[in-house]
Design brief:
Strand content: 5-15%
Structural class: alpha+beta
Largest sheet: 6 strands, antiparallel
Number of helices: 11
Distance between the termini: 89 Å
Helix content: 55-70%
Shape: flat
Oligomer: single chain
Order of helices and strands: HHHHHHHHHHHEEEEEE
């Protein structure tokens, strides 16, 4: 193993030297699209090799200590454990994400998608803190390398879960503990656009992570990984702990359904709130408030309802919107259907239709509407 490590270190040093010196002494436009993925892959390999070397050194130190202080034989051999269904699902998920990500991520970088994703937060950070601008490219390569390293680690963790290795259990538990604060404090607020989307995204991360932590702490799962408590006799490891009672399963199922409902409702509520804050939504309601047709069919005053359909895509200068807004008033209910475009910072309604009982009444462009006269 030591010889393999030495060969890997020498090979990586040679490859890194070539990758750094060739663009410097032979500049060419050919190197431009491959600089970012090459640097990310090299940094990832350096990190992997450092962790591998550290693990080798720790294991060698543990072996020396074990030889110096041998343990007494107990005559006990741990029986082969059956893999729980949840661990099988976690193993497949981690392996799938790790293997697919490890293969696709370099092409993702070559296509320039990784750099474009980083451009917006980089510009914001550089504008707010100019002294950080020289360090932003280094931070970019480091974060992309760590991202790729996580894919590689996911593949190894998936294999460890499939084999019921205790280190894989601890790795998943540790990732679950740090994932919510790291994503909640750094990545989600940084990359979520608009910022209010960070709330449902954080909930969508916290719910599965919370359930994963709860599941990993189940006695039967810990038993499968031979992770016994310090007070539990080693003879008790032969028999698995009792399963969950029917009341426990009922409570767990109810909480699971409630968790999914909270996650879905949070996303729906935030998207609905974003649409209500948009300019085209306010313009549409203002047009409806000044329409005599809406007053005769729905009544005044009217109020918009929940669960709108459609979408709004908007930037500073242009955009498009297709919305169906439910209305209710003293005379009845109806849906307000609007199609609009934004050009040069200004919204223009292309079509505004009031739909009630299968009848479509065109409000804009202004035309003849004998029904509302």
């Amino acid at each position: 193993m030591l010889r393999i490590l030495v060969v890997c270190w020498v090979s990586l040093l040679v490859v890194t030297g070539i990758a750094v010196l060739v663009p410097l002494y032979a500049p060419s436009p050919v190197w431009t699209p491959i600089v970012t993925p090459t640097l990310c892959i090299l940094i990832t390999l350096w990190l992997i090799l450092m962790f591998w070397s550290a693990g080798y050194g720790i294991r060698a130190a543990i072996r020396k200590l074990a030889n110096r202080f041998p343990r007494k034989a107990t005559g006990y051999a741990a029986p082969k454990q059956k893999r729980p269904a949840g661990i099988t699902l976690l193993a497949v998920m981690f392996s799938w994400i790790g293997c697919i990500g490890s293969v696709i991520f370099p092409f993702f970088l070559i296509a320039g998608l990784g750099g474009s994703m980083w451009n917006q937060p980089t510009a914001a950070i550089g504008a707010a803190h100019p002294w950080l601008r020289p360090f932003l490219p280094i931070a970019k390569y480091a974060l992309l390398s760590i991202w790729y390293l996580f894919y590689v680690a996911y593949a190894f963790i998936g294999f460890g879960l499939w084999k019921l290795r205790a280190w894989a259990y601890r790795a998943v538990f540790g990732l679950s503990i740090i994932m919510v604060p790291v994503l909640g404090a750094v990545f989600i607020p940084l990359f979520a656009t608009p910022r209010i989307l960070a709330i449902p995204l954080l909930i969508w991360v916290a719910v599965p992570v919370g359930w994963t932590i709860w599941y990993l702490k189940r006695p039967r799962v810990r038993f499968a990984f031979q992770l016994l408590g310090p007070e539990q006799p080693i003879e008790d490891a032969v028999q698995p702990p009792p399963g969950m009672s029917w009341n426990g399963k009922l409570v767990t199922g109810t909480v699971a359904v409630a968790s999914v409902g909270i996650a879905i409702c949070s996303l729906v509520a935030v998207v609905d709130g974003m649409i209500r804050q948009s300019d085209i939504y306010k313009i549409t309601l203002d047009e409806a408030a000044h329409s005599g047709c809406v007053a005769s069919k729905v009544g005044t005053p009217f109020a918009p309802g929940w669960m709108m359909n459609g979408s709004v895509e908007e930037s500073d200068t242009q955009g498009s919107a297709h919305l169906e807004i439910p209305l209710h008033g003293s005379k009845g209910k109806a849906n307000l259907v609007v199609s609009a475009d934004k050009q040069r910072h200004t919204w223009k309604i292309n079509e505004l239709v009031l739909v009630q009982g299968g009848q479509r009444i065109q409000l804009l462009p202004v035309g003849s509407n004998p029904v509302c006269q």
